[in-house]
Amino acid sequence: MRTDTGQVFHLEDYKPTDFLIPETHLDFCLRPERTVVRSTLQIKRRNGVAADAPLILDGDELKLVDIRIDGTVLGDNAYVATPDRLEIRGLPENGTFTLEITTEVNPTTNRQLTGLYRSSDVYCTQCEAEGFRRITYFLDRPDMLSVYTVRIEAERSEAPLLLSNGNPKDKGTLTNGRHFAVWHDPHPKPAYLFALVAGDLGVITDTFTTASGRHIDLGIYVEHGKEPRALYAMDALKRSMKWDEDVFGREYDLDVFNVVAVSDFNMGAMENKGLNVFNDKYVLADPDTATDTDYAGIEAVIAHEYFHNWTGNRITCRDWFQLCLKEGLTVYRDHEFSADMRSRAVKRIAEVKGLKAHQFPEDAGPLAHPVRPRQFREINNFYTSTVYEKGSEVVRMIRTILGPDLFRKGMDLYFERHDGDAATIEDFIKVFEDASGEDLSQFALWYDQAGTPNLAITYDYDQATKTFEIEIEQSLKPTPGQTSKKPMHIPVQFALLGAKGRELKPRSAKGGLVKGDVIHLRKRKERFSFSGISERPVPSLLRGFSAPVTLTSELTRSDLAFLARNDGDEVTRWQALTQLLNAKLTSNSKRVRGGKPATIENSSIKLLGEIAFNATLDEAFRALCLSIPSESDIARELGANIDPDAILGSRDALISAVAEAHAEKFAQAYNELEQKGSFKPDAAGAGRRALRNVLLDYLSVAESSSKRAAAQFKNADNMTDRAAALGVLVQRFGDSEATNHALQAFEARFGNDPLVMDKWFVVQAMQPGNGALDKVRELMTHKLFSLDNPNRTRALIGAFSSGNQTGFNRADGRGYKFFAETILTIDKKNPQLAARLLTAMRSWRSFEPVRREHARESLATIAMETGLSADVRDIVERTLA
Ligand code: BES
Ligand code: ZN
Fold first, then answer.
1. Catalytic annotation on 305?
2. Ligand 1 residue neighbourhood (C-beta within 6 Å)
3. Which is nearest to 569 in space by CA: 472, 504, 468, 494?
4. pLDDT above 90 (res 676)
5. CB of 338 within 8 A of CB of 306?
């Protein structure tokens, strides 16, 4: 394990390497505990580099077995090898030579799940970001592009399947039951995109014909017997390939594209060239075992990894500070893909919810960092919501600012100019400047300044001159390492709404820059004045969530209700409703704490009823509107002095009031929404189920009875409805007989299916209140629980710490204490996983003083531990700073 060296890496220290590695030949002799890797590198010193410059390669826990240059074994004093570094001096004068390195690794004992490891006996690799150096010594950095040839040899009975990147070149039988395969990838790539898979797996195959008529062989490899559950992923893959041709003009570039599903994986999936490796959670689905959310996740992740083939692989990152160059852009692309496959508005609202739930708190807390950070101690800790989701929003803003045609022109130029490059954010911005002639230098601050800007908005309508004025003041709070901030270029998409939501078209706009339906805010404070507005309008601002900002506006409750009823943009419509509900929920959270009863306004209840029964609205949209902001949504709105018990009380009071007011009609709608016949995982079906399942929760509250949920659980013919019913049972009827009965039935039926059992652990970890901690402790001793498997660990420990507001953030601090102990245990096996889980505590300073002090103590306990991984050390110290 890499322990902390205290070393900090800085963007401004970037320097190209002294040597190039145009060709890499890898030879793997696979054995469970003693795999031998022989790496043959063609090395060239760069022009202008001194002849005595040493070659220094990266390693991590490596054992060197043999080393040769141009076939001659190196003498002991020609090199210095440690587990994490290989330095060679006295290199051949002309600077061109062949370096052969033999290392030995143990895939079986590798529980960090980076480098070469085994998952259920399958050999697999994970090299991003710095895992390749756990396989062999190398210049393990993304700007070191090399052409790879890989030979794999293994026991045929143990590993009939031998896969690597690129196209298959050769295969054959050896003596002693062993066999081999050779793969060649003609596209130069960085080491983080290398992959190898060897094992005994089932497969489904298909073909895709590209726009230019090339035939691609597609394969998805899964555990034997699970092949039918990969069909949806295959369908999503073919749709992704077609979409990237249609929307971005990008064709696939190898003869084969393989996807392998493994059950032990730190992340969601990995875009290795021609050989994507997936967490099986993002491959396997059928109606009986996967929810609508799982299906949507598979579609998105398959698309995302496939899209990396151009945005990430053909054009990669110069260094890891540029991570958003591939991740932000590829998230933007997978968002657009899902929007085209499903309902665009519903997809966009889900993105906004996700951004606010994950990225806004990151920006508001001690771990805040720019979309392109300028320094890091551990790169693994920068695969964050800021780099990914905010990075995607920044790309979306470029499109909003330039318009769709110039955006596409810029993307075309990006692919044309930088194909085969290891590029930077500056390169990316430049293609849009060159394609459009616009100056994007102020816009580029989005990559540099951390924190979520707030827009304070005031309005003024003058009936006499028929002029409407909007004044916007932007502000950005200090974040770690950035005390003063500059004003940014913020695109605010808008409409001015008259009676019944009709859009009023201004005759002209004066003051700051307005183009079409976009206000371009560029100064700290700017006025925008619209003439020819015949009635006092209600402004609909930030349509489509055109910028990742918060708004403070002087809209009245009645303006918000007007928007919630009439706004033609579903995102602002949903936002207005949410703002109305949040105002009540937050003030009631304070009241409940003060011992005063919650007050619920009839107008909000009426409004929710109108939306619920408005058949002209998409069912999925109605479901989103009826889902009352979550406990953590309310906590985020409150921002400080948080008491999760008060929040739960406030939220439940609103749910009860809505449920009681509409019980009868909800029951009728619940019955009507039942779907008979075969399950389809499409947007329409998912929307109906989502709406029906929100109603189930309301009805269970109104009826104070678990009967309805128990019946739905029993009769469900798909996992979406079954899991939703189980959720209601656990959330609302805690330790009742009905709940325990359902949990037992679920375990009896799905006990052999790890992905389904993860749901069983999640739902119990989320049980509200003080009973949860003991439940989690008890489940840790369950025969199916193991801290070795990331999915299972996230299901229990992750769901408890990041999803259970009241159960985790107990007033007595026992939740935090348990968590600190567990993090220390996980850190010894899998530092990346431990560090990621620990980010659940990033908002500890927003709690009321008693919880805050308990949280600080637990974080301090972790920080005091000696031998912490670099990953956890980095997170805990920044969280406490
Ligand atoms: N390149 C990442 C996977 C990765 C991240 C590997 C960090 C190693 C370290 C991949 O493309 C990715 O971004 N995966 C996401 C899912 C995606 C849909 C956002 C993931 O794994 O969460
Ligand atoms: Zn990615």
1. yes
2. 128-129, 267-271, 300-301, 304-305, 308, 327, 331, 334, 383, 388
3. 494
4. no
5. no
